[in-house]
Amino acid sequence: MTSRTVRGACPHDCPDTCAMLVTVERAATGAERVTGVKGNAEHPPTRGFLCTKVSNYEQRTHSPDRVKTPLKRIGAKGEGRFVPITWDEALDEIASRFKQLAESDEGAETILPYSYAGTLGLVQSQSMDRRFFHRLGASLLDRTICASAGTAGYRATIGASVGTDPERFSEARLIILWGTNTITSNVHLWTQILEAKKRGARVVCIDPRRTRTADASDEHIAPLPGTDGALGLGMMHVIFRDGLEDKSYLDEHCLGADDLREQVKAFTPERVAEICGIEAETVVRLAREYATTRPAVIRINYGMQRHAGGGMATRTLACLPAVVGAWRDAAGGILLSTSGTFPLNYTALERPDLMPTPHPRTLNMSALGDVLTEVDDPPVRALYVYGSNPAAIAPEQRKVLQGLMREDLFLVVHEIFMTDTCDYADIILPATTQLEQFDIHKAYGHLYLVLNEPAIRPLHEAKCNSDVFRLLAARMNFNDACFRDTDEEIARQALTSNHKNLDGITLEGLREKGFARLNLPETFAPFAEGNFLTASGKCELRADALTAQGLPAVPDYIAPRESALSNPTLAARFPLALITPAAHAFCNSTFGNLPKQLKMEAAPFVEINPHDAQARGIVDGENVRLINERGACELKAVVTLRARRGVVVSPSVWWNKLSPGGVNVNQLASQALTDMGGGATFYDTLVEVKAV
Questions:
Q1: What pLDDT, on a 0 to 100 scale, did the predictor assign at position 29?
Q2: Rounded to the nearest 5°, which phi and psi values hold at 597?
Q3: Rounded Cα–Cα distance for residues 645 and 50 (Å)
């Protein structure tokens, strides 16, 4: 038995994008098996450890439950009955159906790809797949299910997804963790925060739920869901009222400071306290501490933008560092995502020039239920799913499942395991895991590119995304040279943007070390001297371009659609606000079928405050039913002060087939979209809870 170590990268939807070291053992017979993974200690963000989701990744790769061969449905949709077929049979069937649809009167727009972040990576999820569907002329997918609202609000203010270098958080004196359960969803940043705490920094957690992160912070503030924007406006009211703003930074580097000053006058601490369900004194104290502490940094995450005003809320918070001049410090400012710091050549990767003119229509993934049941000009007649599990993760689940049940919908799913979506498929294709494929990864929580080398050959009959789309392109007679690019050639193309941030970074260098930091100074302070990435070059406290979208140019509070204050009639029937944050052992629906992770999460549950439980006669540990106009689901009640009054919390995403009644909490979520970015509104949901 011999062993070797292979450099890899975690591919999952997490800011940390860890560099991994994969141990492979080779038997005398020549058979190879991955026996362990660990974090690469040389990679500064990873620091030698992996989260609980990924630390046993070899069990995912070698799981006996993997899809091993292509499969064809023989039962009714939803039954999950299939027979094995060959790859040639599967690919011929897909190509034949796609050709038939593309050549019909309705055209290729009847075909829709559906993918997201089940496996990230520039090669496997953002290159050959896009080329194929662009060349086909399929409908485009607006990938909005997670981050689009916050991204739009952030860009309207700052200009791009650029923020404080996470490696500088250890130097901050005040860290506000706003809408982020960092220990669960960004654990490697927590190591920086712990260093800051040792140096005397204070950590404030703002979250409707008392999370692990809140437990470990110096203070926890629990506003009602969807009211973060109001709290931000209230802070600015106090800052301007008390003369705590950085006047010179506002004058030199901002647009619309006087407009913002006037706007926030209406958001008194008393009014904000009523909106948020907190004390007015808390608003005043937080504002003063933030304005008078240097360096002060805010970490926001995507949970706080999953409601009707999510884009505006993110925009509001993105104004705060400019108001107090926090951008002057490398350890100050705000961080949503670092993804805009990576100037990769996306045009070369995705080849939008392959699309027909005019471009095909765009359909929003957050409204998949409506897309499959109501769109008819033309209707979607084929759906190709990869890197996602829409039957479990998409909002208004009842309507999504209704669409997937359509006998006239040709559904292809390329997957590692038999997910809920697979049960409705006509053809299932076996996919590789990260340990069996090549890729290159940017991050949205640090400033390093990370390379993933395949540790072992694909197991069973699995194929990676790039290989499948090459094979389909050949069967569709797509002769463009780009469909013959190898994975390594695609990786090289990603690095050809000639931007200074990529100076000195090559595929050869990545292969030698496994990762490379962008060509940025160690004390990277992106907006210390202004130079924002907006059209004006300034932080746009007034963004006139938003008026064309029917939105206020200056930050304002946009209430949730479903709350006691905004919709009292609905709240009389469904008085509890539901949020569904990430489960500690799952990454969305990924890992939701593995024994270790299932043991950690135990069962689908809902946290309910003792006051709300007592009013409903609910006892800790009993089964309860969550209901609203869109659906219902059954969960185990956990009566706890971790949920504030008026709010119930159900960590997600559980697979339907592993949930009581075969459905999960996304039965209850609306397909209504956010104010900007077309994002999903998972946390804008009112429910009632009843004992079963």
A1: 86
A2: -70, -40
A3: 35
Q: Which of 458, 592, 457 is nearest to 69 (CA)?
A: 458
Same fold, 71-146+360-517 and 152-336: no
The per-residue pLDDT for range 118-162, each reduced to its tens digit, is 999 999 999 999 999 999 999 999 999 999 999 999 999 999 999
Counting beta carbons within 10 angstroms of the beta carbon of residue 542, is it exposed (0 to 12), middle (13 to 18) or buried (19 or more)? buried
User: What is the C-alpha separation between 421 and 589, in angstroms, rounded?
Assistant: 11
Residue 25: strand pairing partners? 3, 33
Q: Domain ranges in the chain?
A: 2-61, 71-146+360-517, 152-336, 568-691
Name all contacts of 551-556 with Cβ < 8 Å and 24+ positions apart: 551/311, 551/312, 551/675, 551/676, 552/312, 553/256, 553/259, 554/256, 554/259, 554/260, 554/263, 555/229, 555/232, 555/233, 555/260, 555/263, 555/312, 555/315, 555/316, 555/319, 556/233, 556/263, 556/312
Contact 448, 516 (CB under 8 A): yes
Question: Could you tell me which of 69, 71, 128 has the C-alpha nearest to residue 412?
Answer: 71
Contacting residues for 359 by C-beta, under 8 A, at least 6 apart:
140
Rounded to an integer, what distance in angstroms lies between the CA atom of residue 92 and that of residue 98? 10
| CATH level 3 topology of 71-146+360-517 | Rossmann fold (3.40.50)
Q: Is there a contact between 157 and 319 (Cβ–Cβ < 8 Å)?
A: yes
Give the angle subtended at the CA of 263 by the CAs of 261 and 269, to the nearest 5°: 90
- Alpha-carbon span 400 to 397, nearest angstrom: 5
Task: With 0.85 as the threshold, say if the pTM is over it.
Answer: yes
Nearest to 319 by CA among 534, 121, 60: 534
Query: Strand, coil or helix: what is 649?
Result: strand
Distance CA 71, CA 78 (A): 14
Q: For 389-405, what is each residue's pLDDT tens digit?
A: 999 999 999 999 999 99
Phi, psi of 514 (to 5 degrees): 100, -15
* CB-based contact 226:295 (threshold 8 Å): no
Q: What angle do CA 139, 140, 142 make, to 5 degrees?
A: 135
Residue appearing with tokens 């020549």: 30
What integer pLDDT is reported at residue 47 of this predicted model?
Answer: 96
Cα separation of 555 and 229, whole Å?
9
**What's residue 28's pLDDT?**
83
In whole angstroms, what is the distance from residue 569 CA to residue 195 CA?
A: 48
Identify the CATH number of the domain defined by range 152-336. Answer: 3.40.228.10
Which of 665, 501, 459, 582 has its CA nearest to residue 12?
582
Task: Report how far residue 426's alpha carbon sits from residue 504's, in angstroms, rounded to the nearest whole number.
Answer: 47
Bridge pairing between strands 219-221 and 202-206: parallel
Taken in order 148, 149, 152, 158, the sign of the CA dihedral is negative
| H/E element, 605 | strand 605-608
Cis status, amide bond into 343, omega within 30 of 0: no
Distance CA 183, CA 193 (A): 10
- CATH assignment, 2-61: 3.30.200.210
Length of the chain: 692
Phi, psi of 406 (to 5 degrees): -60, 125
Q: State which fold the 568-691 domain adopts.
A: Barwin-like endoglucanases (2.40.40)
Say if strands 174-178 and 296-300 run parallel, antiparallel, or are unpaired.
parallel
User: Using CA atoms, how far apart are residues 299 and 664, in angstroms rounded to an integer?
Assistant: 30
Peptide bond into 653 cis (omega under 30): yes
Number of H helices, E strands in the chain: 23, 27
Tokens of 162: 């650029």
Alpha carbon distance, N-terminus to C-terminus of the chain: 56
